[in-house]
Structures are given as structure tokens and as C-alpha cells.
Design goal:
Strand content: under 5%
Largest sheet: none
Keywords: Membrane, Transmembrane, Transmembrane helix
Structural class: mainly alpha
Helix content: over 70%
Number of helices: 8
Distance between the termini: 33 Å
Protein name: DUF4405 domain-containing protein
Number of strands: 0
Radius of gyration: 19 Å
Number of domains: 1
Length: 221
């Protein structure tokens, strides 16, 4: 693995950790939530800089179905991030409290909805690049990765995780939170860190897996 690829991988992993911390709003202190948001924003800028070729190629080349879907996911993700930053300023109680901006319920609700969109779109975005992750693991594991038992174990694990992701999505009202039918109150406090990680990991896997396997089907057709 070259240095640039390693740096990109570490940044992406750190962004994923920040996403989970941001979703743990009801569990973590407000200061940690705001700090995680700032770190995520900085990492997002670095991610965009390292992948700036995507921006320069936006109006070049042919748009296939995969490229259209990927571009739409990226635009929605960037929009959600921008809304998160804008609405974070007036509702900040720690980092930007010195600004003295009036806190209103509308900003709180929009911030919560944009946060849910950012989580969902972030893992959908990952799904468009999961093939590269799979290839990296295959290189590491060698021929063992193509063994029928290993292949079916991976598929079974993915299916189980995605199935739990469907249940967790309903339990945590993810759909309602995307369309303003539920706000920050839906991000209830969990009885354990394990339950929180289990559910949101499964939800993230659901969105990533849906894109990954959906693209596989698209390629076959």
C-alpha cells in the first residue's frame, strides 16, 4: 500500500468514527459532539482535496447509470454537510457559544435531519467504493479469499448484518428522521454502548451493502 492510499484510508476511517460519535448525541457530552463535528468537517475537507479530481471531472466524460447515482449521492452528502455546519453555529453550546447567536428550534430540527442524511449518504457513498475495499482484502488474504467457504461466510455475515440493519432502521425511525417527521428526540439514549454500536454499524452496513450489491446486479445487466 502506497503512502497516499494509506493516508486516504486513515482519513476515511477517522471520518467513519466521527460519524458514529455524531450519531451518539444523546450519549456523549455536548462538547464531544461539537468537537467530533469540527474534526469531521476538517477531515471532509482533506478528503475532498485528496479526491479533487472528482470535482474537476464533473462536466467531463459520459454519465453512466453508476456515475449518475454516485454523483447524486455525493451532491446530497456535500449538501447535508453544508447544512450541518450552517445550523451548528446558532445552536452551539460549547465551541461557538461565544458568537452569541440566537438558538431556535428550527435550527435544531434541521440540524438533526441533516445529520441523519449525512450518516445515510456517507455510508451510501462508501458503498460506491466498497469494491476497492474488497479488492484490498483479497490481495491481503491471497487465494484464501476466493475459497468457497470464505465467500459464503462473507455473504452470510453481510446478509445477517444488513438484516439487522433493516430492523435497527425501523427501531430508530431512520426514515422519519430523513423527512422531518422525527427530530433529535428519536436519537434516544441507549442502555449500553454495545447496543448503539451494534445498531448503527448494522444500519451503515445496510446502506453500504445495498449500493455494493446493487451495483453488482447492475453490472450483470
Amino acid at each position: 500500500m502506497n503512502k497516499r492510499r494509506l493516508i486516504k484510508g486513515l482519513i476515511d476511517a477517522a471520518m467513519a468514527v466521527c460519524l458514529f460519535l455524531l450519531m451518539a448525541y444523546k450519549m456523549a457530552p455536548n462538547g464531544l459532539h461539537e468537537f467530533a463535528g469540527i474534526v469531521f468537517f476538517i477531515l471532509a475537507i482533506l478528503h475532498c482535496v485528496l479526491n479533487r479530481f472528482w470535482f474537476t471531472a464533473l462536466f467531463k466524460g459520459k454519465y453512466t447509470v453508476r456515475r449518475i447515482l454516485g454523483t447524486a449521492a455525493n451532491v446530497l452528502l456535500l449538501t447535508a454537510l453544508a447544512v450541518q455546519i450552517i445550523t451548528a453555529l446558532p445552536i452551539s453550546e460549547t465551541v461557538f457559544a461565544f458568537l452569541g447567536l440566537a438558538k431556535d428550534r428550527t435550527s435544531v430540527v434541521i440540524h438533526g435531519v441533516a445529520g441523519t442524511w449525512m450518516f445515510v449518504m456517507g455510508f451510501l457513498h462508501l458503498g460506491f467504493h466498497w469494491d476497492a475495499v474488497v479488492r484490498a482484502f483479497r490481495r491481503r488474504l491471497g487465494s484464501a479469499a476466493d475459497h468457497p467457504v470464505a465467500v459464503w461466510l462473507f455473504r452470510a455475515a453481510a446478509a445477517a448484518l444488513m438484516a439487522w440493519g433493516v430492523k435497527a432502521s425501523f427501531d430508530r425511525a431512520m426514515g422519519s428522521r430523513l423527512i422531518f417527521n422525527a427530530g433529535l428526540h428519536a436519537m434516544y439514549s441507549d442502555p449500553s454502548v454495545f447496543r448503539f454500536i451494534r445498531d448503527y454499524l448494522a444500519i451503515g452496513a445496510l446502506y453500504t451493502g445495498a449500493v455494493y450489491f446493487g451495483l453488482k446486479l447492475l453490472q450483470k445487466n
